[in-house]
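RECORD TYPE: inverse folding
INPUT: C-alpha coordinates
STRUCTURE:
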Protein backbone atom coordinates (compact mmCIF):
# COMPACT_ATOMS: atom_id res chain seq x y z
CA UNK A 1 0.00 0.00 0.00
CA UNK A 2 2.86 2.40 0.79
CA UNK A 3 4.27 1.81 -2.70
CA UNK A 4 0.89 2.60 -4.27
CA UNK A 5 0.62 5.83 -2.29
CA UNK A 6 4.13 6.84 -3.30
CA UNK A 7 3.58 5.89 -6.93
CA UNK A 8 0.32 7.84 -7.16
CA UNK A 9 2.40 10.97 -6.80
CA UNK A 10 1.28 12.25 -3.41
CA UNK A 11 -2.35 11.18 -3.61
CA UNK A 12 -3.54 9.37 -0.52
CA UNK A 13 -5.35 6.03 -0.65
CA UNK A 14 -7.79 5.08 2.11
CA UNK A 15 -7.49 1.45 3.21
CA UNK A 16 -10.40 -0.91 2.72
CA UNK A 17 -10.17 -4.54 3.75
CA UNK A 18 -11.25 -7.31 1.39
CA UNK A 19 -11.32 -5.51 -1.93
CA UNK A 20 -13.61 -7.26 -4.38
CA UNK A 21 -13.27 -8.56 -7.93
CA UNK A 22 -9.54 -9.27 -7.80
CA UNK A 23 -8.77 -5.65 -6.98
CA UNK A 24 -5.81 -6.65 -4.84
CA UNK A 25 -4.06 -7.66 -8.07
CA UNK A 26 -5.11 -4.39 -9.69
CA UNK A 27 -2.91 -2.41 -7.32
CA UNK A 28 0.15 -3.57 -9.23
CA UNK A 29 -1.20 -2.33 -12.57
CA UNK A 30 -2.29 0.96 -11.00
CA UNK A 31 1.17 1.35 -9.54
CA UNK A 32 2.79 0.77 -12.92
CA UNK A 33 0.42 3.22 -14.61
CA UNK A 34 1.14 5.88 -11.99
CA UNK A 35 4.89 5.43 -12.53
CA UNK A 36 4.41 5.93 -16.25
CA UNK A 37 2.17 8.95 -15.67
CA UNK A 38 5.22 10.78 -14.35
CA UNK A 39 6.87 10.22 -17.75
CA UNK A 40 4.74 9.27 -20.73
CA UNK A 41 1.22 7.82 -20.53
CA UNK A 42 1.04 4.03 -20.77
CA UNK A 43 -0.05 3.00 -24.25
CA UNK A 44 -1.03 -0.05 -26.22
CA UNK A 45 0.89 -0.54 -29.43
CA UNK A 46 -2.02 -1.03 -31.84
CA UNK A 47 -3.50 2.45 -31.44
CA UNK A 48 -0.88 4.40 -29.48
CA UNK A 49 -3.45 5.25 -26.86
CA UNK A 50 -3.73 5.13 -23.12
CA UNK A 51 -3.79 1.58 -21.69
CA UNK A 52 -7.47 1.02 -20.93
CA UNK A 53 -6.91 -2.05 -18.76
CA UNK A 54 -4.51 -0.18 -16.49
CA UNK A 55 -6.97 2.71 -16.14
CA UNK A 56 -9.80 0.29 -15.29
CA UNK A 57 -7.65 -1.39 -12.67
CA UNK A 58 -6.67 1.96 -11.17
CA UNK A 59 -10.34 3.02 -11.06
CA UNK A 60 -11.18 -0.22 -9.26
CA UNK A 61 -8.60 0.70 -6.62
CA UNK A 62 -9.87 4.27 -6.33
CA UNK A 63 -13.64 3.70 -6.30
CA UNK A 64 -15.80 1.96 -3.68
CA UNK A 65 -16.47 -1.77 -4.11
CA UNK A 66 -19.99 -1.08 -5.30
CA UNK A 67 -18.79 0.80 -8.39
CA UNK A 68 -19.37 -0.66 -11.83
CA UNK A 69 -16.61 0.08 -14.34
CA UNK A 70 -17.58 -1.13 -17.79
CA UNK A 71 -15.46 -1.24 -20.94
CA UNK A 72 -17.63 -0.66 -23.96
CA UNK A 73 -16.30 -2.91 -26.74
CA UNK A 74 -17.36 -0.73 -29.61
CA UNK A 75 -15.19 -1.67 -32.56
CA UNK A 76 -13.69 -4.60 -34.39
CA UNK A 77 -10.00 -4.40 -35.26
CA UNK A 78 -10.06 -7.36 -37.67
CA UNK A 79 -9.65 -6.26 -41.27
CA UNK A 80 -11.45 -7.56 -44.33
CA UNK A 81 -14.85 -9.14 -44.88
CA UNK A 82 -14.73 -11.10 -41.63
CA UNK A 83 -14.15 -7.91 -39.61
CA UNK A 84 -16.91 -6.10 -41.51
CA UNK A 85 -19.33 -8.96 -40.80
CA UNK A 86 -18.44 -8.93 -37.10
CA UNK A 87 -18.91 -5.15 -36.94
CA UNK A 88 -22.33 -5.48 -38.62
CA UNK A 89 -23.33 -8.08 -36.02
CA UNK A 90 -22.28 -5.75 -33.20
CA UNK A 91 -24.22 -2.84 -34.70
CA UNK A 92 -27.27 -5.10 -34.90
CA UNK A 93 -26.79 -5.91 -31.22
CA UNK A 94 -26.91 -2.23 -30.29
CA UNK A 95 -23.34 -0.97 -30.58
CA UNK A 96 -23.52 2.82 -30.85
CA UNK A 97 -21.00 4.75 -32.96
CA UNK A 98 -18.86 7.06 -30.86
CA UNK A 99 -19.77 5.43 -27.54
CA UNK A 100 -17.20 6.20 -24.84
CA UNK A 101 -14.48 3.68 -23.96
CA UNK A 102 -15.48 3.34 -20.30
CA UNK A 103 -18.65 3.85 -18.30
CA UNK A 104 -18.48 4.31 -14.53
CA UNK A 105 -21.61 3.82 -12.41
CA UNK A 106 -21.44 4.46 -8.67
CA UNK A 107 -23.76 5.93 -6.05
CA UNK A 108 -26.46 6.94 -8.57
CA UNK A 109 -23.90 8.71 -10.78
CA UNK A 110 -22.90 7.84 -14.34
CA UNK A 111 -19.69 9.01 -15.99
CA UNK A 112 -18.50 8.22 -19.51
CA UNK A 113 -14.74 8.29 -20.08
CA UNK A 114 -13.17 8.63 -23.52
CA UNK A 115 -9.50 7.57 -23.43
CA UNK A 116 -7.11 9.21 -25.87
CA UNK A 117 -3.39 9.55 -26.40
CA UNK A 118 -1.91 12.95 -25.49
CA UNK A 119 -2.42 14.25 -29.03
CA UNK A 120 -5.45 12.10 -29.90
CA UNK A 121 -8.54 13.83 -31.25
CA UNK A 122 -12.21 12.98 -30.97
CA UNK A 123 -13.89 11.69 -34.12
CA UNK A 124 -17.13 13.41 -35.18
CA UNK A 125 -19.22 10.46 -33.91
CA UNK A 126 -17.46 10.70 -30.52
CA UNK A 127 -18.20 14.44 -30.36
CA UNK A 128 -21.86 13.71 -31.15
CA UNK A 129 -21.99 11.06 -28.41
CA UNK A 130 -20.38 13.47 -25.91
CA UNK A 131 -22.91 16.19 -26.78
CA UNK A 132 -25.87 13.79 -26.47
CA UNK A 133 -24.68 12.47 -23.10
CA UNK A 134 -24.09 15.94 -21.70
CA UNK A 135 -27.48 17.15 -22.99
CA UNK A 136 -29.12 14.33 -21.03
CA UNK A 137 -27.35 15.38 -17.83
CA UNK A 138 -24.74 12.63 -17.58
CA UNK A 139 -21.04 13.15 -16.98
CA UNK A 140 -18.45 12.80 -19.74
CA UNK A 141 -14.68 13.35 -19.66
CA UNK A 142 -11.73 13.11 -22.00
CA UNK A 143 -8.94 11.13 -20.31
CA UNK A 144 -5.31 11.26 -21.41
CA UNK A 145 -3.65 10.06 -18.19
CA UNK A 146 -4.32 8.43 -14.83
CA UNK A 147 -4.53 11.87 -13.24
CA UNK A 148 -7.18 12.89 -15.80
CA UNK A 149 -9.25 9.83 -14.84
CA UNK A 150 -8.98 10.52 -11.11
CA UNK A 151 -9.68 14.23 -11.61
CA UNK A 152 -12.77 13.38 -13.71
CA UNK A 153 -14.13 11.31 -10.82
CA UNK A 154 -13.66 14.23 -8.44
CA UNK A 155 -15.05 16.78 -10.92
CA UNK A 156 -18.23 14.71 -11.31
CA UNK A 157 -18.78 14.17 -7.57
CA UNK A 158 -17.64 10.55 -7.24
CA UNK A 159 -16.45 9.45 -3.82
CA UNK A 160 -13.03 7.85 -4.05
CA UNK A 161 -10.52 6.38 -1.67
CA UNK A 162 -7.78 8.58 -3.16
CA UNK A 163 -7.29 12.15 -1.98
CA UNK A 164 -6.21 14.71 -4.58
CA UNK A 165 -2.51 15.40 -4.91
CA UNK A 166 -1.44 18.64 -3.24
CA UNK A 167 -1.12 21.45 -5.76
CA UNK A 168 2.36 22.86 -6.12
CA UNK A 169 2.63 26.65 -6.17
CA UNK A 170 3.67 28.15 -9.48
CA UNK A 171 7.37 29.09 -9.59
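DESIGNED SEQUENCE:
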Amino acid sequence: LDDLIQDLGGRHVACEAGLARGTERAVHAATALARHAQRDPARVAHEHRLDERAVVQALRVALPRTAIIHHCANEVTEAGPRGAKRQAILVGMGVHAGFADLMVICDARVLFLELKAPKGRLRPDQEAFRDAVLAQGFGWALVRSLDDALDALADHGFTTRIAPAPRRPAP
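NOTES: Confidence is low (pLDDT under 50) at residues 1-7, 12-48.
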